[in-house]
Design goal:
The complex is a heterodimer of chains A (410) and B (146).
Chain A (H helix, E strand, L loop, with lengths): L2 E5 L3 H11 L6 E6 L11 H6 L14 H4 L2 E5 L3 E5 L4 E4 L4 E3 L2 E4 L3 E3 L13 E2 L4 H10 L5 E5 L3 H10 L5 E6 L11 H13 L2 E5 L3 E5 L2 E4 L4 E3 L2 E4 L3 E3 L2 H5 L8 E2 L11 E3 L4 E5 L4 E3 L4 H15 L12 E6 L2 E7 L4 E6 L4 E7 L2 E8 L6 H8 L9 H6 L8 H8 L4
Parallel strand pairs in A: 1-2, 1-7, 2-3, 7-19, 9-16, 10-11, 10-16, 11-12, 18-20
Antiparallel strand pairs in A: 4-5, 5-6, 8-17, 13-14, 14-15, 20-21, 22-23, 23-26, 24-25, 25-26
Chain B lengths: L1 E5 L9 H9 L6 H5 L9 E4 L4 E4 L8 H5 L5 E4 L2 E4 L9 H5 L6 E2 L5 E2 L13 H5 L5 E5 L5
Classes of the chains: A alpha/beta (410), B alpha+beta (146).
Amino acid sequence: MKQYVILGNGTAAVGCVEGIRSIDPKGKITIVSEEKHAVYSRPLISYYLEGKTDLERMKYRGDSFYDDNACHVLYGTKAVSIDPKKKQVALKDRSVLDYDALCVATGSRPFVPPFEGLETVENKFSFMKLDDALDLEKALTKDARVLIVGAGLIGLKCAEGIRDRVGEITVCDLADRVLSSILDADCAKLVQKHLEANGLHFLLGDTAVRFEKNKAVMKSGKTVAFDILVLAVGVRANTELVKDAGGNVNRGIVVTETMQTSLPCVFAAGDCAEGFDSSIGANRVLAILPNAYLQGHTAGVNMAGGNERLTNAIPMNSIGFFGYHIMTAGAYDGEMIEEKTGSGVKRFFVSDKLLKGYILLGEIERAGIYTSLIREKTPLDTIDFDLMKKVATNMIYSEKDRRKTFGDVV
Amino acid sequence: MKRVYVNEKWCLGCHLCEYNCAFANSGMKDMVLALKNKKIFPRIHVEGDEKITFAVSCRHCTDPLCVKSCIAGAISKIDGVVKIDKTKCVGCMTCVLVCPHGALSPGEDGVMQKCELCLENACGKPACVTGCPNHAIVYEERGERV
């Protein structure tokens, strides 16, 4: 009987379990979970604070998931080293796990730059894990002034989640725009306007350089008084275990299309991994939930001796703020083609007769049709591009291609 | 696995499938009370132009990307049917972002909904098929597909 060990207990781990079980119903699966929670949906922590979900509904899988899949979970411990020659993982409690196939799904951690005086701040929080949200929740008061450092996805979702539970929120970022990792300057401006209309204040192109208890001194010399500080500057992949074992690591653990690392019988998946991004034709960390599941599943299938390759992963985000939806996907390469619609803006990025990426603000209906064009590398001369710009519809395809999709009927 | 298939040559573009879908999933007994003067949120929709029309609903894909992508773990495939646990959905629309067919849309409450083949509502089988006046929508076994 094969022995599988999974380091981490998040989305990639679930994908890995379900991948393994699609091939091998019997092998022994051990999951090492640093957090003392059964798997939950991390991106839902802001929705939790907003009151749109609760701890029960945040469970990513049902209560019987581990039993149904015959998984043994070790809670509250973590791996400290991997010995790829002996095929063993050493845990913090000094126990050792043997494996035939190992999946490193250790995720990422908040990156906190060395701010001067940060230790003088009493109420400071990260915003990644459930416990972060629960800790932050305890500090929330109706009049609290909140400073969020980082206007990225994490910082802004946090702001949305707590807006109605605090006095005022200021978000600062060294970048000159909000959501700089997924929006261009024009789109960022539109989104910022919407966020400001919903009560958020911004200090962009500016960041905290020093903290003095309840005061942040900004790079510009401005000062911001706050009661609660949220640090959402960025994240770093947890790559150390593989690096220390001699594996190939860049920003993430380098993996092939089968999620194999450079170490034999060691796979990696999720936010800690650096897999192939087909929209740029190179490896990079794609720290998004769908990718964590897809990578985990691919790793699991291959760990169990099956054959699955993840060849069309791309960055893609669906994110809403106060009822306003944003979707982005792919790379913003090549010619930009803009389409203003009644309720929003669409920007498409085209090169080599392929759709490489898009930004949609406000109008996101059936956007998956666009995403599919990027993932499948559909030649744009085989579809009705002018129609595509205006509306995401299956009418952009030829009758023959539609027939393939909808069931060889017509 | 039986699924809903569409013959676009026979589709009249009458949109009756949308109304039958909304009614079947309304939980109400009277179609007039359920739909009259209300904006409907069907789980099937008609696309097309003056010449071609066809209805689109969930394909219940063999390898459903929505299931793998849902950030809440709210979508699963059970006995061949892709289903949403509406209590878990937070309306992030990641399923809309990834569905290659454009088959999901939010309901009246902002929570996502999709075709679940009417297997669990009073209809018991797809209402769009039953009510299609030109038999342009059928419910048949045609093998697995991606």
